[in-house]
Amino acid sequence: MEEALKDPNFIAGFTIAIGAIVPAFSIGRFVSAAMEALGRNPSAGPAISTNLIVALAFTEAIAIYALVVALAIKFV
After folding, report:
1. Which of 13, 14, 17, 28 qualifies as a FRET site for 72, CA 20 to 30 Å off?
2. Tell me, what's the pLDDT at 66?
3. Distance from C-alpha of 23 to C-alpha of 18, rounded to nearest angstrom
4. Going from the N-terminus, what domains does the chain have, and what CATH number goes with each?
5. How many alpha carbons fall within 13 Å on the CB side of residue 74?
6. Which of 67, 54, 65 lies closest to 27, judged by CA?
7. Gap between the Cα atoms of 43 and 68, Å rounded
8. pLDDT value at position 45?
9. Which of 66, 51, 58 is nearest to 26 (CA)?
10. 69 class by beta-carbon count within 10 Å (0-12 exposed, 13-18 middle, 19+ buried)
11. In which band, very low, low, confident or very high, does the pLDDT at 67 lie, cut at 50, 70 and 90?
């Protein structure tokens, strides 16, 4: 196990796996909550959509940061 923790390929793979799974669950939760809110109050659609798009962009940025860190671990 200690050899795997020293392997840059393993660490890079683990980093991108965690960095992809967590934002995926977060996006699912955000969209679910937005659809629920739209179902309760359809007239608030534009405000909910704007906030949803901003939240999704920030969440995707976290996944991109994880990719950059994984690439840095692998190649630097």
Report:
1. 28
2. 92
3. 9
4. 21-75 (1.20.20.10)
5. 13
6. 54
7. 40
8. 93
9. 58
10. middle
11. very high
pLDDT, one tens digit per residue, over 27-57 is 999 999 999 999 999 999 999 999 999 999 9
This prediction's pTM: 0.79
Cα gap 28→63, rounded to integer Å: 14
- Written in H, E and C, the secondary structure of the chain is CHHHHHCHHHHHHHHHHHHHHHHHHHHHHHHHHHHHHHHHCHHHHHHHHHHHHHHHHHHHHHHHHHHHHHHHHHHC
Is the model's pLDDT at 2 over the cut of 80? no
Question: For 40, what's the count of Cα atoms within 13 Å in the CB-facing half-sphere?
Answer: 7
Residue 10 and residue 4: Cα distance in Å, rounded? 6
How far is Cα of residue 38 from the mean position of the Cα atoms in its chain? Answer: 23
